[in-house]
Amino acid sequence: MPTNSSLDLQRFYPDELEIVSIEEDPDEIRLHMLSRSKSFCCPKCGEELRKLHATHHRTVQDLPILGKRVFLDIRVHDFQCQNPICEIGAFSETFHGFLNHYSRMTERLIDFVTILALETSCEASARIMQAMHVKISGDTVIRMLLKRYQTQSHIPCGSHIGVDDFAFKKRYTYGTIIVDENSHIPVAVLEGRDGSALKAWLTQNKQVTTVTRDRASAYAKAVEEILPDCMQIADRFHLHQNLLEAVKSVINSTVPVDIKIPKDAASPYAETAVSDILVESSKKNV
After folding, report:
1. Residues whose CB falls within 8 Å of the CB of residue 200, separated by 6 or more in sequence, listed in order
2. For residues 230-252, average pLDDT
3. Mean pLDDT value across residues 129-150
4. What letters, b where the CB count within 10 A reaches 16 and e where it falls short, cover 146-165?
């Protein structure tokens, strides 16, 4: 029974985008596409836009096809919002989230890159994507992650939080992470660890009543200044660290630095001799 072995590329793209022509060479596929949409929903006020303002060409990169780099050369419509109370004016169509308004990549390609970066690293994901014939750099991956983070919706935060610092780049750039202790979900990532960004965040989150933190004085002062009635708790790791330092201090003050060991270590009296030395030494220190 005969079968159709041809690949219909139109099936992999929105219905409003029509493939007009295809250019192919050994390393790249370029699809020339034309928008057929007649309306667009305003992202600001939600009103349906039907008045065409202008058209322009966009070249965006898409997921590779059969190991070849893919570029979409699209003629896109700009629609004008006629709502008098809307401040957005004209806006380019996004084809139900297939494109965004600023990137040179399709949203599905950005999704793939960001997931790969979160599972590996920015530089590693860039090298993998380059091996897949996607034109991208590690710095571009970082910018993608930052933009995705900035566009995330606000995460609600409870009254109990944990605060700690971390290194973007060790010994150079640091940040502050805030975690909701009830859900164990990070709710904010702030720049710096001097407490200034934490102050601004606490000003917008006055519902916080308990803060678990490390021993950094900057965090303690920030919480005390903005939320004076808030309870501050030292986290478990630093409590253990404080205990170890206290035990170490006691041992260093009791046991001398140099302990003379008998020459005959194999003698059955060697262990007793060492114990006597330690006891005598502790009595003198007391």
Report:
1. none
2. 84
3. 89
4. eeeeeeeeeeebeebbbbbb
Q: Using one digit for the tens of pLDDT, what is the confidence trace for 56-97?
A: 888 999 999 988 999 999 998 888 887 877 877 777 888 888
Q: Which amino acid is at 124?
A: A
* pLDDT band (50, 70, 90) for residue 261: low
Q: Determine the distance from the C-alpha atom of residue 240 to the mean position of all C-alpha atoms in its chain, rounded to a whole number.
A: 29
Beta bridge partners of 17: 35
- The answer, as to whether pTM is greater than 0.90, is no
Burial of 41: CB neighbours in 10 Å, binned 0-12, 13-18, 19+ = middle
C-alpha–C-alpha distance, residues 13 and 51, integer Å: 24
Return the residue matching tokens 């060991």.
261
pLDDT for 262: 62
Residue 267 neighbours by CB distance under 10 Å: 11
Paired strand residues for 70: 29, 62
Give the whole-angstrom CA distance, residue 17 versus residue 13. Answer: 7
Among the listed residues 176, 211, 212, 214, the one whose alpha carbon sits nearest the alpha carbon of residue 193: 176
Residue 80, token pair as written in the block:
């004008």
State both tokens at 92.
């380019």
What's the rounded Cα separation, in Å, for the pair 176 and 165?
4
Query: Given the structure tokens 């890159």, which residue do they identify?
Result: 113
Tell me 51's DSSP state.
Answer: E
Beta-carbon contacts of 178 under 8 Å, excluding residues fewer than 6 positions away, are: 157, 161, 162, 163, 186, 187, 188, 189, 190, 198, 201
Any idea which residue has 């002062």 for tokens? 221
DSSP-derived letter for residue 153 is: P
Nearby residues of 60 by Cβ (< 8 Å), 6 or more positions away:
71, 72, 74, 99, 103, 104, 105, 106
- Residue 62 pairs in a beta bridge with 70
What are the structure tokens assigned to 60, written together?
Answer: 């965006």
